[in-house]
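Question: Send over one sample?
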Amino acid sequence: MDLDEKSKFSCRTGEMDVDESYHKRKFSENNKLVKKIGKVVRDLRSLGFTSLTEDAYASAIFLLLKAKVHDLAGDDYRSSVLQSIKEWIQAVPLQFLYALLAYLGDSVSYDSPSSGLKSPLASCPSRFPGIETPSEGLVRWQLRLEYFAYETLQDLRIAKLFEIIVDYPDSSPAIEDLKQCLEYTGQHSKLIDSFISALRYRLLTAGASTNDILHQYVSTIKALRTIDPTGVFLEAVGEPLRDYLRGRKDTVKCIVTMLTDGTGGNPNGTGNPGDSLLEELNRDEENQENAGCDDDINTDDKQAWINAERWEPDPVEADPLKGSRNRRKIDVLGMIVGIIGSKDQLVNEYRVMLAEKLLNKSDYDIDSEIRTLELLKAGAEQGETGVSLDLLDATIISSNFWPPIQDESLNIPGSVDQLLSDYAKRFHEIKTPRKLLWKKNLGSVKLELQFEDRAVQFTVAPVHAAIIMQFQDQTSWTSKNLAVAIGIPEDALNRRINFWISKGILAESLGADSDDHIYTLVDGMVDTSRNGVNNGSCEELLAGDEEGERSVASVEEQLLKEMTIYEKFILGMLTNFGSMALDRIHNTLKMFCVADPPYDKSLQQLQSFLSGLVSEEKLELRDGISKATELLLREEWKESVQIYSQFISLCQEKLSNTHDNSDPDRLSKLQKSLCLALSNRAEARSRLREFSDALEDCDQALKLESTHFKTLLCKGKILINLNRYSMALGCFKRALLDPQSNGNSETLNGYLDRCKKLEFQSRNGAFDLSDWVLNRFQGKPPELAEYIGAVQIKKSENGGRGFFATKNTEAGTLLLVTKAVATDRGILPEPDEDSSESARLVMWKDFIDKVLDAAAKCTRTHNLICALSTGEDEEGLEVPDISLFRPETEESIFSKEKKKPNTGRILSILDVNSLTEDAISAKVLGKNSDYYGVGLWILASFINHSCNPNARRLHIGDHVVIHASRDVKAGEEITFAYFDVLLPLNKRQEMSKTWGFNCNCKRCKFEEEIGSRREIKEIEMVLERASDMGGGIVRLEEGMRRWMVKGKEKGYLRASFWAAFSEAFKSEKSMRRWGRRIPAVEAVTESIAEAVGGDERVLKVVVEGVKKSGAGLMEMERAMKLGRGVYGKVVKKQAMRALLELGLHD
């Protein structure tokens, strides 16, 4: 039973026995359990193992406490658990420790540095119920336990802080627990780093709506205000949120909607009417100010002294540029509005929204709008919003301050027009000299349409009312005549009359002229429920109209009008200076356009304006794409991705602004430019190994042009890198359909042949390294495909997961070929221990960086790495299906949500699963003996160690090739050696401890049994003295005959003493002296190969024997068989002969 199993058992036992019996005061110094443990502790202390014993029962107690914290905390955030945890500490572990320390006489020193446990920051532990005078040791234990509990609960809550804030305020108890934990541990930076990471990879994505992000930001402000009233956390956490939201086009609109709607900032639309988020935030801030008692204005001396005593320095994470007084008053409204950056944008959007609301009102009740305006003013006066009161006062009802109103001609029916004229005349008589000028296209009209069987009411825009009223006297109109009668363009009529057609009130048919439509009043209206006729409000109907039919000009339209004054300046600048990048144009305008009005637009606003000029064909993007292509050719990948991204964004915005009647040639040209840019960005991203993003670019490009040659070629190369050969082959075959492939047939055919070869290797495992061997490993290593043979992943008898054969397999048969996630290789310095260790540490750090980078760039790689073990809770790990690792596994199986790699977890995974390249691989790669390599091969990491392994690995390039080193039966676990297994048991046990495990293979168990014999120990002593290797071997062989050791067990012992056999076989003197009492080379090497698989040192002895004896056919065949166990069947017969002659095993 390993430590994890023991901890689980102890946790279950402790909860079953200890928790239930606490009130019965089960623990005492006379308790059997206490006495047994105490006796063991005393005995070990007397032997000098004081620190070891303390570590042992301390680890057990802390494992039990950790399990209890996890059990109590769980995923329920609606209740506080901290007090329950502290009570449990008092009830169980402290009572046990009190009894144990009493039994031991409380004489153990708890200052031992070997324990490795942290000292708590808190200086005052909780009280001890039932213990009158706790000893100093017990006090120290309580501090340690409470600190560990606080830290464990803190880590749990920090890991789930995103979910906790989503549930806020229902999760307030969990927030309070977290606050207390942080006050106790002081690990505030851990919260900041973890939460920022969660925000970036779970919220700040294209799939999240701006409204959802803003509401999460508001909840974050409220929750973190509870944890940290000083606002330090909000400064750090809020920065990535604000930066991301500034890049979204609808951020300003969403903020204004949140501040003015009646849902209380709730995304589901619930809330009291008039209770806007703005009012809620102001109410919260008022409560905060009242509770603060921190104002130093008009305070007497006594209060000043109280405030002085209460003062605390700011945390180290605080921004030194902000004073404590400013920070303590968290301006929530200011933090939200501060996202925008420019106060003018907020006010302009608010003007438009307020104008829309006022124009759409059917009465004079504007109390809600006035209240919102006053709250905005109050927020501007009290907070740091940067919103000028003068700008808010500009929303007064005056034509000088209103946004531009959509003014279009409209002929309304004569009877209605007469009513309006009478009303205006009467107004002039009462309000002389004022005159009332009607905006006939604005407002709403209530209509009642009477049919034979019913009357239906509508609330519609004036233009809809004007259209339907024309059918009172005339039941049929052509579109041209009706447009003239109403006074609007014909295309606008055709668009707006669809409302009445959709309600089943009008019918449409074609006239004699195909461009002329005939609209006829339907005699009997169809069932209203089926056609969706409702008493819809004007606001609902307008919401369905196009953007150009709004009552007032949108912010975008106003911006376009404002930016037109810079158009000539931009055109002149580009004429004189040639092509310029977007950011350079932006900086030039800010530098030179300082007169009234000064240039104060953002980069996104400028980009939007320039895309409009491009759509009007006043500017071209050709130079921009040329610059990106130049960077691509210079292999400046990151810079080219940035330029292409700007170009793609402009093209996409331009396409979104096109209409159905746009010029088809211009539209086609724009789509081709976008397709090429996406393809080139995919190429650059693939060179940066950002394969997931590169594939997305390829898919977008292929939606525009399904047989685009360059894109298909790029996607095929990416898929080869991802080992998805069949899909890559499909891309190359589709590329043949593009006419451009005719001029690139040689390149395309090269990729087709390469892909076919890799696909065949991946499917059949038909690898052949013979040519490379015969060429004496000159040039690059051969390109290998990924291959998974007749193996599966299952639970291992020795714990954890392992690789198992699914059919009988001969020695040398290929089992697995897999490519590394990352590797790092180098030549170690001279054999100086310190310098070599330093070089290894540098390589290890570089290797870790490469793995983290690979995990961040590819979601599939990240998920596969996370499937590996961290060395903890091996039994609880899920057993993945082998199909997940096959090259052609569909990407849809894996989560597409991008997650930031958990550095701590990946470090643990690498510590357990990384492999070093062995000496044989170094020689095959042409490296010298000082060569050192380390890498992560995911599938190979599932293969466990055994001292009687049945597989070997060979590193070729970035691939590891694993083959059977001896015959393997179906169902047998595949294992290879993590270290040298041609060593005695005691040395192998030392090696396994450095790896952090104990080997329980059949060989080790057998040698442990037989190792207790006195004769074996004497033989080991003789061989260690190296005085007479032959004599030691003779005694070993005679002993095995007496002990009835046969079969593989004989091979086990011979492998353990291989060093002695090797020396004896080299010494002619020893062989002459002992003669036939030493077994023949063939018998020894075959028994070792059968027991522990092929080994190059054993093979070396066989090859030397063959050379001495003249290389008979039988001897050569025996050497070839051993060679297949060492090098595998990927090396064919002729190449194997050459390989053995080359003496790579020297």
Q: What stands out?
A: The chain has five domains: 3-154, 414-549, 559-764, 782-976, 985-1142. The CA atoms of residues 777 and 924 lie 7 Å apart. Residues 833-857 form the longest helix (25 residues).
